[in-house]
Amino acid sequence: MTMPAPDLREAARDMPVNSLGFRKSPAQTRVVVAMSGGVDSSVVAAMLAAQGYDVIGVTLQLYDHGAALAKKGACCAGQDIHDARRVAERIGFPHYVLDYENKFRESVIEEFADAYLAGATPVPCIRCNERVKFRDLLQTARELDADCMATGHYIRRRDGIGGAELHMAADANRDQSYFLFSTTQEQLDFLRFPLGGLESKAETRALAAQYGLAVADKPDSQDICFVPNGDYASVIEKLRPGAADPGDIVDRDGNVLGRHRGVIHYTIGQRRGLGIGGLGEPLYVTRLDPEKRQVIVGPKEALATKIVPVTEVNWLGSEPFEGEIAINARIRSTRPPRPAILRATGERRAEVELLDPEQGVSPGQACVFYASEGTRVLGGGWISHRRGG
């Protein structure tokens, strides 16, 4: 008598869900971990390996090693690649280094330079997540037959009725949701963020020590990885010769108050370093006009903004992106979300009305949308230009 073949689908349904959300054993679940060489991603890789997952570590070489080796405190530099490799060797999982220099330059660095030349204040870390890590690297993870890709970002992913949802990290001081607003729904379904539920960075370092990782006490990166010592202007001058041409500092009526050493050296809201003291009330940079090579200054109240137009909107909400939606909005990574009204003005365009004016709203920065109650990230967009109100 021939016995019926076992129903594999029935068996899968009976299998408990593992910590990454799959109905199979950790050993049968392949996860690619994006490893920067820092303590966060190293802990993720070690933690998942300890739980029995089929871990593959991948580190991206994003720019020239020669320059990288001379720079400490930035991700994806030469030392960081070495650190990631050492973690993989200690824990015992395969590790690969991928040369993404050209992708990174084309997708992130070139736009960064052009944005500054246009008088904007760009956030290249968001573009890197959007165009390199969560697009190109994620595709590589799929090609490696991974079930998911994990990163060391401090943000939470939750399964909701309509699919995966993005939520702020448990530790508000470490929350990185501002830098991940452009994560698409398709990407979010594939991504995992194991550190998002930790209450403090101290917990992460304690885990690193527990796993015997040499990076347990490694300092956090502070600068943009390709900008040595935070000197944006020198990088832009190197990429775009002549970008630092001097010009006039003028008031809102066009009266010349002084000279500046290049628009790229200034940002919206800046007060110090203008070289125009002794004029009475303090003056702040309120606008940049690269075409006229002018830095426009005014009193602090001139910085107040209520209406913020945004473009390239990425929407992660359950409801359709239309009409008016009550949200909390964050217009800088260092500021908490504030109550606002989101108005859709096109398929990927919107206007955000801040209930209380914010100062220093700058084109090129992100405006991130959060649910009016709770921790859910609803998406966001890029601030296109500033209007008073």
UniProtKB/TrEMBL annotation:
It is found in: Cytoplasm. Residues 174-176 are annotated as: Interaction with tRNA. Catalyzes the 2-thiolation of uridine at the wobble position (U34) of tRNA, leading to the formation of s(2)U34. The record marks H153, Q365 as: Interaction with tRNA. Its EC number is 2.8.1.13. Signal peptide: none annotated. The active site is at C128 (nucleophile), C225 (cysteine persulfide intermediate). It comes from the Bacteria. It catalyses: S-sulfanyl-L-cysteinyl-[protein] + uridine(34) in tRNA + AH2 + ATP = 2-thiouridine(34) in tRNA + L-cysteinyl-[protein] + A + AMP + diphosphate + H(+). Residues 244-298 form the tRNA-specific 2-thiouridylase MnmA-like central domain. This is tRNA-specific 2-thiouridylase MnmA.
